[in-house]
Amino acid sequence: MESNEIQIESYDDVYLKINCERGMAKELSDFFTFKVPNYQYTPAFKNKIWDGQIRLFNLYKQTIYCGLYDYILEFAKDRGYKISTTPVKVNNISSDDIVSFLNHLKIPYVPHKHQVEAIRIAINKNRCLLLSPTGSGKSLMIYSLIRYYLDNMPKDKKILIIVPTTGLVSQMYSDFKEYSKDTDWDLEKNCHTIFAGQDKQTNKGVVISTWQSIYKMDEKYFAQFGAVFGDECHLFKAKSLTSIMTKLKECPYRIGTTGTLDDSETHKLVIEGLFGRVHNITTTKELMEKNLLSHLNIDCITLKYKLDEIEEVKRVKYDEEIKWILNNSKRNKFLVDLTCGIKGNTLVLFNYVKDHGIPLFESMQETCTDKNVFLIHGKTEVNYREEIRSILEKEENAILVASYGTCSTGINIKNINNIVFASPSRSVIRVLQSIGRGLRKTDTKDKVKLYDISDDLRYKKYVNHTYRHLQERIQIYDREKFEHSSVLIKL
Question: How far apart (Å, rounded) are the C-alpha atoms in residues 326 and 305?
Fold first, then answer.
């Protein structure tokens, strides 16, 4: 091996083995080392047992996730290093081949071009991360791919689909039932679901499970799977996702799907390492322009408080500011009056169940007497959530008060006309996923309105936490090219 040469070998379906001189290995280690966002607030950092960095290249074993193969090639090319490697195996299936295959499946919908392209990329690459927004039809993409892999994998291998919530297990199964209803492919005989203590062992070829249900299982359990799908993979806890994906030693087919990725490079590279390179399939704006999603308009409503109220909370910590905001009677009355006055089905999203969600729900029940008001949060039974979802599909003027955690991902309600952000948030993922709840079109709906509520508690040169978060959300709206306007209301 030459002094400026990097040899890349296959270690297993999780890791690559990198052979090179020690100095180059240290350079690789530095290149693939990142500070984790907000690391300084973690107990491990505060207790001085972690330096706040994540290292994607193991300097001792000289191994790295297979999904970072392209980045290693770029690293070597930029520095003029030689690369010795066995080329990654890829397929060469055309879009016409995919269309023909989908026709064979007899799916009761005509797949859109972006869905055909996503399926083509996944089959050709074997491992990848499909970035496609809420409402783009990711479950149809996954269904088509599992049918492909069932036909092309060894018969003793199963397919694992990992989702972040119990609601998504039920929804995925329900979607698959819809896609296979006109075929002789029997969903009940082929597909097993795992959540809330259900049996983890099955002879069926497809397993849909929450990551929480299986991440403690050993490598022997995961040896049965030849293909894995991570749906909404941005939501998996990093340690749990890594635990599952690194136990899949003999699983060459790895497809991740998500509508949004965290802005941090660390988050992106970890998920790419475990699944494969990101491929941007389409955007929310493109789907709106093609009339595949409802058109979105955003009112950024800023609530301006009186000086004596501002002085109560000037320069307080974030948690104290949030507590003050959520307990402000004038603010909550404004939220209730706004929601009661909006026509159509309205989704009101909150952060804290006991301190905000339940009081809002009770106030809306009292005040909005001409509307049915429902409440969903983390402790709401899955069956009841499904019941509420079904009711809302038939309602025309109802209110659903729901926690971000249960509704930003995992509940597919097409018949939403309005969304109210009742609690502040700056998370890119949470904001975009929450917006996605209202974007699905129906025969009677092609528009959705978002009311983004923020709080102006600025004092002289001081800018309060949640007002800064509004500015960050506006940056998200600008980047996504969403239409938005600003409204100032004095309380």
Answer: 14
Q: What is the mean pLDDT of residues 295-311?
A: 92
Cα angle 16, 22, 24 (rounded to 5 degrees) comes to 70
Residue type, 336: V
**Cβ atoms of residues 228 and 199 within 8 Å:** no
Decide which of 382 and 29 is more confident.
29
Backbone angles phi, psi at 418, to 5 degrees: -140, 150
Instruction: Identify residue 180 by its one-letter amino acid code.
Output: S
Bridge partners of residue 34, in order along the sequence: 54
- The predicted-structure confidence for 174-187, as pLDDT tens digits, reads as follows 999 999 988 889 99
Strand 15-19 relative to strand 5-10: parallel, antiparallel, unpaired? antiparallel
Question: What SS3 class is residue 358?
Answer: helix
pTM for the predicted model, two decimal places: 0.82
Q: What angle do CA 481, 267, 472 make, to 5 degrees?
A: 35
- Strands 346-350 and 63-65, how do they pair? unpaired
pLDDT given at position 235: 66
> Quick one: tokens of 323?
């507590």
Separation CA 164–CA 234 (nearest Å):
9
Dump strand ranges (E) for 36-108.
53-55, 57-58, 63-65, 82-85
Distance CA 452, CA 3 (A): 57
Report the b/e string of 117-128 with b at 16+ CB within 10 A. bbbbbbbebbbb
Q: How many CA atoms lie within 13 A of 461 on its CB side?
A: 0
